[in-house]
Specification:
5-stranded mixed sheet, single chain, alpha+beta
Length: about 240
């Protein structure tokens, strides 16, 4: 389910699903952000009835801005702005991508540097980055800005080589040798199958003979989790806080 939708039951056993979306428009250098809420009523127990038998769209509010910078400042004012305003829920963003590109880069780089988002929220952040990749043919500016997206090591905080969108909380290669068990003994991880999947830990310098049976590992007082990477190999990510 989208972060911007919810389903709730009613007395007549029907189910209502709400979707929130926004429309960004402009007129004579004035910008408007309109919030809309669409409610769809579904009747799962009725036979031969359109499941989406009733759909209503309600105008919630309209905000006025004197510039796109003012618009961007408004939608990013909260700490979890990328959850409240997902890129896919705002219509017409692509029309203003050349002006918005530097703002997007600065904002999402800051999020990745601070690493205060959850694993589920990674996709909301990536949605904003993907606007730059999707519309980089708009201008040379958008192309250049997309190349400024950064990722940082979850341990030492250094800038990573290349943009790592899928694993923004992973550690760099320089920090891999620092991984230990809870008692400070060095451990390393490998794929458990030749096809590049599975994850198995071993104590270092045992020629992969002495197994480390946990996926949780440590660097000093930081807790990490080792897992198989999507296309093979191993990735070690900062452990999610409870």
């Amino acid at each position: 389910m989208s972060l911007f939708s919810k389903i709730f039951g009613t007395k007549d056993n029907s189910k209502r699903q709400e979707y929130v979306h926004y429309v960004l428009s402009d007129s004579k250098n004035v910008y408007y952000l309109k919030k809309m809420k669409k409610t769809i009523v579904m009747f799962p127990d009725r036979i031969n009835t359109n499941a989406h038998a009733e759909a209503k769209t309600k105008h919630v509010y309209t905000k006025k801005f004197r510039s796109l910078f003012e618009f961007w400042k408004y939608i990013t004012k909260s700490k979890k702005w990328y959850v409240e305003y997902q890129a896919g829920t705002i219509e017409n963003l692509e029309k203003h991508i050349e002006i918005l590109a530097p703002f997007i880069v600065q904002a999402t780089n800051k999020l990745r540097r601070e690493m205060e988002f959850s694993e589920k929220e990674i996709y909301s952040i990536a949605g904003w980055d993907n606007l730059l990749f999707r519309y980089k043919d708009k201008s040379e500016l958008v192309l250049k800005e997309s190349q400024k997206l950064k990722a940082y090591c979850a341990n030492c905080g250094s800038e990573r080589l290349g943009f790592i969108q899928r694993y923004p909380k992973s550690i760099c290669h320089e920090c891999l040798p620092k991984v230990t068990d809870k008692n400070g003994r060095s451990v390393e991880f490998f794929n458990s199958h030749i096809g590049g999947y599975g994850c198995q830990g071993y104590y270092s310098e045992t020629n992969q003979q002495e197994k480390y049976e946990l996926d949780v590992c440590y660097i000093d007082d930081k807790e990490f989790v080792a897992e198989e990477a999507r296309f093979g190999g191993i990735v070690i990510n900062l452990k999610e806080k409870p």
